[in-house]
Amino acid sequence: RSWPFAATSPFTKRPEKMSKDKSAAREYAFQFLYQFLSSGKWPADGAARLDSALADFERSRSEGDGGNMPHLEGGKRKFAEELIRGVLLNRSALEGALRPHMQLGTEKTHKVDMGVLLISLWEMQSAPGTPRAVIINEAVDLAKRYGEVRSGAFVNAVLDAWAKANKVAKA
Questions:
Q1: Which pLDDT score is estimated for 13?
Q2: N or C: which end of the chain has fewer CB within 10 A?
Q3: Which contiguous run of DSSP H or E holds residue 97?
Q4: C-alpha of 170 from chain center
Q5: Which of 16, 11, 28 is nearest to 115 (CA)?
Q6: CA-CA distances (angstroms) from residue 165 to 22, 47, 65, 75, 159?
Q7: Quick one: how many helices (H) and strands (E) in the chain?
Q8: CA–CA dist 94, 114 (Å, integer)
Q9: How far is the first Cα of the chain from the last one, in angstroms, to the nearest whole number?
Q10: Which residues of 103-130 are buried (b: 16+ CB within 10 A; e: fewer)?
């Protein structure tokens, strides 16, 4: 099956190497996107507006943690921004792809779970070199850390169902 957003992905150009850096970048992307999921106010289109939103987020993240929260730099930051841009530019398509695998639909799904699902599905579609198990395991970890008691199991079930339905290779 061909996905319109996969062709525009920067992920398709490099091999995947799992690292703590990628975990930190996924968490950063989740935290950034969660603020919009929880408020319902998504940033306006445009690279300058997104750059401004990222700068504001970085400032608030530092101030909110007394300046102790590490900043992402280099490859980690680039990966996080790729995840963020991918979700923001393709949110409707991603939600549409998830909807058949969710009983409540995307509108009634817990915001934490939805954020994790959007990031993970974007990565699964745009980074074919990343093993699906790595993406799903990272998603489950984020859902457990930030979600409700059953968030990890829910995220795992939805992503696994989507991957099987779309014949995504396990490795």
A1: 35
A2: C
A3: helix 74-98
A4: 19
A5: 28
A6: 26, 34, 41, 32, 10
A7: 6, 0
A8: 10
A9: 18
A10: eeebeebbbbbbbbbbbbbbbbbbbeeb
Show the tokens assigned to 89. Answer: 């530019």
Tokens of 88: 């923001």
From first to last of its 171 residues, the chain has per-residue pLDDT tens of 333 333 333 333 333 444 577 899 999 999 989 988 887 777 666 566 777 888 888 777 777 654 555 567 788 888 988 999 899 889 899 999 999 998 876 667 889 999 999 999 999 998 878 888 999 999 999 999 999 999 999 999 999 999 999 887 776
Q: What is the pTM of this model?
A: 0.80
How much is the pLDDT for 156?
A: 95
What does the block give as tokens for 27? 């968490």
What does the pLDDT read at residue 135? 93
Number of other residues whose CB lies within 10 A of the CB of residue 35:
17
The amino acid sitting at 153 is: A
Q: How far apart are CA 120 and CA 137, in angstroms?
A: 10
Q: Per-residue b/e over 51-88, b at no fewer than 16 CB within 10 Å? A: eebbeebbeebeeeeeeeeeebeeebbebbbbbbbbbb
